[in-house]
Amino acid sequence: MAARLEGDMKRRRKRADKPTDSGRKTESRLIVEQAEFEAVCDAAREAGIAAFDTEFVSDASYRPELCLLQLAVGEERLAVDPLVDGIDLAPWWDLVIDDETTIVAHGSQAEIRFCLDATDERPRRFVDVQVAAGLLGRGYPLSYTNLVSRVLNRRTKGKATRTDWSRRPLSDKQLEYALEDVEYLPDVWTKQSKSLRKRGRLDWAWAEFDRLIDDVAADREREPWTRLSGINKLNRRELGVLRELAEWRESEAERQDKLPRRVLRDDLLIDVARRHPSTREELLETRDMNRGNFRKAADDIIDAVRRGLEVPDDELPQKRRKGGGDFSEEEQVLGKLLAIALANHCAELDVATSLVGTASDLRDLVRWHVLDGDKGAPPALMKGWREEVCGDLLVDVLDGKIVMRVGDVRSDHPLVFERRGG
After folding, report:
1. How do strand 102-105 and strand 126-128 relate by DSSP bridges?
2. 10-24 residues labelled b (16+ CB within 10 A) or e (exposed)
3. pLDDT, tens digit, for every residue of 236-263?
4. Which domains does the chain have, with CATH numbers?
5. CA dihedral 404, 410, 413, 418 (to 10 degrees)
6. What's the pLDDT tens digit per position in 4-39?
């Protein structure tokens, strides 16, 4: 996998994305025929670049339902209706995972997830202009409207956030809103890629696009129980019970094609894990559990509790430390110190701090350098372009090699970091 990704990166660096004319007029159409859709995919492959967005409904079924595919290819804006009988999206997903076609999106976690679900393969030449914007300025994450305004000085109508995209027929106004989400993406990326290349950050961008895909893929594989809030309050045995309960709920949600929380609410799942009832009466003594659908599932819930109680001690989930995930108080204090240094340095470089490193990333660095003596795998801030940007500075701050003072108080980066004796 690592060798393949490295090869992808080299190919990406050698290939310039094809420019588009930001003053062009675009044509729009709705595609409901497979042959026409495949012709569009062929045109995108020939052009070497296409913009991509989706509309979906995520609150009515176990998995989000893809309701509309929006594409911009050349001078056309195209909406593809995947709910029409006979429409097979496989030709598009084949394009997304090939090595030749640049796919441009904005805030693309959902689009990446749809691709992974459809193909079980990663997108390849995949661009997220929201991420790219964070490497060219401190605004991150920028909405599509604000990004288009900043990069192209153009106004958009905004998002139709309350639309039920599963209803048919779609109105002309709905389609216009949806297609606007891809109209400017190729032009935005054309300008961004030129700026990134000029500032020596194009490789940073491609690395970040890959990291975004990594994050979505990792989240897709996370165990259901790890997504729940309140788990830090449970001991290891209760976590073991919760794990079994969450797996049961996930299986039941998929069977019923419901959101997991509509099978059993998160807070009730935590409550059952804490009480671990052994009988129906004990289970249903909580007021909110005394409902018909929970009564029907009572035996299955008790069986899940029993399985959790039978897990051997050495196979139970590890408990996180109270007060900040699995980080100690010392790590959190030093992490806050580094956050000041990082924010000031990112302001100097005009790059988004939240994209460079999170509070968790900073505490990882503290643990690795101060407590573990640089042993083990380097943390994120000591890899790739992040090490180049801030790694040495942050390590030197921890080592006491750098002192901090106030410089120009009117500056957006008023702190000055100087080496001792300098």
Report:
1. parallel
2. eebeeeebeebeeee
3. 999 999 999 999 999 999 999 999 999 9
4. 2-221 (3.30.420.10), 225-315 (1.10.150.80), 329-419 (1.10.150.80)
5. -30
6. 334 443 443 333 344 444 444 567 799 999 999 999
Contact in structure between 21 and 73 (CB atoms under 8 Å): no
Contact 355, 135 (CB under 8 A): yes
> Hey, what amino acid is at 313?
D
Note whether 352 and 274 are within 8 A (CB): no
Place of tokens 């389609």: 175
Handedness of CA 321, 327, 328, 332 (dihedral sign): negative
Q: Which two tokens stand for residue 345?
A: 């340095």
- CA 383, 385, 386 angle in degrees (round to 5)? 65
Q: What is the CB neighbour count within 10 angstroms for residue 286?
A: 14
Cβ atoms within 10 A of the Cβ of 287, count? Answer: 7
DSSP string over 44-65: HHHHTEEEEEEEEE-SSSSSPE
Task: Give all strands of the β-sheet with 76-80 in edge-to-edge order.
Answer: 27-31, 76-80, 65-73, 49-57, 102-105, 126-128
**Tokens at residue 360, please?**
């968790």
φ, ψ (nearest 5 deg) of residue 244: -65, -40
CB of 64 within 8 A of CB of 57? yes
Structure tokens at 94: 């084949």
CB 122, CB 116: distance < 8 Å: yes
